[in-house]
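Researcher: Here's the sequence for the chain we discussed earlier.
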Amino acid sequence: MTPDEVVLRPLRWWDIADAHALEVQLFPDTWSQEVFWSELAAPGRCYVVVQDPGGALLGYAGLAVTGTQADVQTIAVAPSAQGRGLGAVLLDALLAAALDAGATSVMLEVRADNAGAINLYRRAGFEQIAVRRRYYQPGDVDALIMRLRAVQSPSQVVTTTPSVRPVWC
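Model: Thanks. This is the structure I predict for it:
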């Protein structure tokens, strides 16, 4: 499955059970379904999903925007769909939404042991600015804090999927 073969759309309440099931597969410190509900209802949030043409959820991502600052809340891609550019599709959608909302910089935290995600963020222009020691549960994995400065134009942020311009966030 390539990025051109997937459907990108807003995450809706009926996606929460599938997103949570994927969360449990991927992360040792999972969000509950209640956290997904809370995030979906919170102001300034943008959550998107990618699904295959048959409707199966392949990944999801979320963004929080407050004024000129945006924060990537999460990006998750199903193990069976990893390595195909879907993380970049999701990140591009979040960055485009941040730009559309007026954000000028984007922050995120990533597990220090998640080399694939760190490489994705670096390719998009994020730089490591700090480390939170023993941040991720069970308390033995550091979090790298990364920032993308000066989000200025769509061409800067939409690097792999130029048609991705979510207007629903």
